[in-house]
Amino acid sequence: MEINQITKFINHLREAMQQEVFVKLSLGNYKGEEQQLKQIFVKPVVIKRQAMFAFTFRYQTKDIFKNFSFEEALKSINNYLLDGFNVATLFTTTEELILERNQKGVVKLRSNQLKDVKMVVKTHDKEKKRLIAAVDNFYLSALGVTDGEGTVLKHAQDKYRQINQYVEILSSLIKELPSKSICDVVDMGSGKGYLTFALYDYLQQIGQKANVVGVEFRKDMVELCNAIAQKAKFDQLSFVEGTIDSYEHQNIDLLIALHACDTATDDAIYKGIKANAELIVVAPCCHKQVRREIEQGKAKNELSFLTKHGIFLERQAEMVTDGLRALILEYFGYKTKVFEFVSDVHTPKNVMVVGIKSKKLKVKSEKLDVLSEEQNTILQKIKETKAYFGIDYHHLERLLELK
Questions:
Q1: The pTM is what?
Q2: More confident site: 343 or 139
Q3: In whole angstroms, what is the distance from residue 203 CA to residue 132 CA?
Q4: Based on the number of CB atoms within 10 Å of its own CB, is 66 exposed (0-12), middle (13-18) or buried (19 or more)?
Q5: How wide is the angle at C-alpha 274 spanned by C-alphas 270 and 280, nearest 5°?
Q6: 375 φ/ψ angles, rounded to the nearest 5 degrees
Q7: For 332-351, how does the pLDDT look when each residue is reduced to its tens digit (9 = 90+)?
Q8: CA-wise closest residue to 314 among 293, 288, 332
Q9: Domain 164-399 grouped into CATH 3.40.50.720
Q10: Contact of 252 with 151, CB cutoff 8 Å
Q11: Where in the chain is the domain with CATH 3.40.50.150?
């Protein structure tokens, strides 16, 4: 009797799937042997133009996501009904079908007619509106973001969102460039290369045949990323071993430095300005140099009642450091933007400082021969800001010999 009722349920499910009236399915009241498994949810999706079924396996402390073909989905659901799940609820566009097994092992099947049930649009949530697709993307799998089938791994959900948000930000900035042509890209402090690979991927998508270089001081990361780039056939993507301050490259259209610590961000901005980069994008990490200057200067001003507290002093040092960086970028002809963006679980929020080249100012011996009125005003503002906060120097200012 039990098998007959389950067979009827599976046949009904098969028919709903074939006729494309299947909306969703849930399995509950699990009494099987798989530890911590609580529920399973199934919904229709489309992956690479193929109808699939997305399973969410809900455990006590985590969710696992898998996609199955038509026959695989039916087989899996049937096996779970025979071994562990005591309740199954199927929704179609016209009815609700419920399979229940009571404590005595008796299985019953009942249905309710439904009205005005809207059909679920069959799209894959993980791919919707993403510039960097998870499916059929070798480097994401090699970097541990997705599995072999293109499903984003549970522990990498935040990283995948971060990658896409980062590319979305850069895509909008690239569109602001007059020529919209990016030939040479340098990612300073590329780490494991998540964002470097994603940017290269995006540039390929929009037809920009750019040379992209990731600079990283850890030899093992450089070797890993170069091996993945070769296997992915990313011929114009490479990684080199080195530090930000030691790397030399005269031709840079786009310079990136995310989470470069303290003055390493200044080193990156300096390299970008010196190369007349069209676009400079940094997300600073740590602001120790200016904080030390503020602590040593002990300037008395209207904010002293705040900065006597360490946490407020730290936040002030961050704002002053990045504010001066923005002013220096403007001095060299960059239109600046400073905004907050969500990163990942370890660094929930970051300030991003962006410089977009708007005026071609030639840098000669790190100094400009003739200063405009605007540049003189900026220099005065930098001088006043340093005096107000008791700062003797800013590292980027010293690199560029601004006095």
A1: 0.67
A2: 139
A3: 11
A4: middle
A5: 60
A6: -70, -40
A7: 999 999 988 765 444 445 78
A8: 288
A9: no
A10: no
A11: 164-399
